[in-house]
Amino acid sequence: MPSCKKERTVTTDPYAEEDEIVRINARRLTEYPNATKEGEEAFYDVTKQNSVGTPLSSALWVYLDYTTVSFDGRFIGSSVTDSAKLYRQWSASTRYVASLKRNDENSLGKELHSILQKCREGEIVTVGMSAKAGNATGLWKSRTNESVIASIVITKVLNDPKAEEQKLIQNFMNSHSGFTLRDSVYKKVDEIGTGKVIPATGRVHFRYGAYFLDGSLIETNDETIATRYGITLPSNRTSLLSIAVKDDAAFVKGLSGVCEGETVGSKLQIVVPSAMAYKDKGKGNVRPYEPLRFEITIVNYTEL
To answer: Alpha helices, DSSP H only, in 87-234?
Structure first.
């Protein structure tokens, strides 16, 4: 005869049986008595004030640094090198910089956006959030129902990130001579190869390094570059990159045509403004309105 006893569901999620809202309120009342409640899923406390800072309510974009841990102390993420090292979670392959976020609910999430409108540039705010509210910020990712405590530094507010990008590119050009502007990208030939001249059609095969303008490496398939940065490339990451000489939709627009007219064996540097890369959205570690620099060594060319 089958048993009438209800089987207990076994779960590997240590938070699934807890009431997250109750947990958030309890943490606020016991450990953050001066904090202000923000809806049902968040609270905040401005722990460092800056009365002369620009109010976020008047800004379109904001740079935010953060360090986030779960309620039980598990490290979740940080944009700050020292914080990552403090939690023994620092990684040479991680880029530790402030995130550039559009100052709206879609980019920051409802709760964090509402909180920041009450803050100013230069302030530090401690935020307690549900997993859902925290993950909506796009800054970190916690487990289901895993509430978090985040220390958020409002490092800078601005209204025209494109102008900031143009200033960054100009400063780079002022200290790096030899670049010429063509088709909206900056190009420099470091070494002229002795191979065949590359026409406008066909495919070009090259080794490359992709960088931010501060010199941080994004990715590479070149073992020499990897060694320079103390990285060992797996065997599946050392193949030559092969792209159409022009208009290859699989790669950033700014690389289209940069090898045309060059010779096999040449070494190039290309600075690509965000308008020819990831625009105002960014991608992965690339922030919105962020220019990129590529080092390219042309190894081969094949006709179609």
So the answer is: 105-108, 110-116, 131-135, 161-175, 223-228
What is the distance between the alpha carbons of residues 246 and 260, in angstroms, rounded to a whole number? 8
CATH class of the domain defined by 161-302: alpha beta
Judged by phi (left if over 0) then psi (alpha if -120 to 50, else beta), residue 137 lies in alpha
Q: Where are the domains of the chain?
A: 20-158, 161-302
> Which carries the bigger pLDDT value, residue 48 or residue 15?
48
Q: Has domain 20-158 been given CATH number 3.40.50.2300?
A: no
Q: Which element (helix H / strand E) includes 43?
A: strand 42-48
Q: Which of 249, 263, 252 is nearest to 299 (CA)?
A: 263
Q: What is the pLDDT of residues 190-203, one digit of tens each?
A: 999 999 999 999 99
pLDDT at 18: 55
pTM: 0.86
Q: Which two tokens stand for residue 205?
A: 């095969």
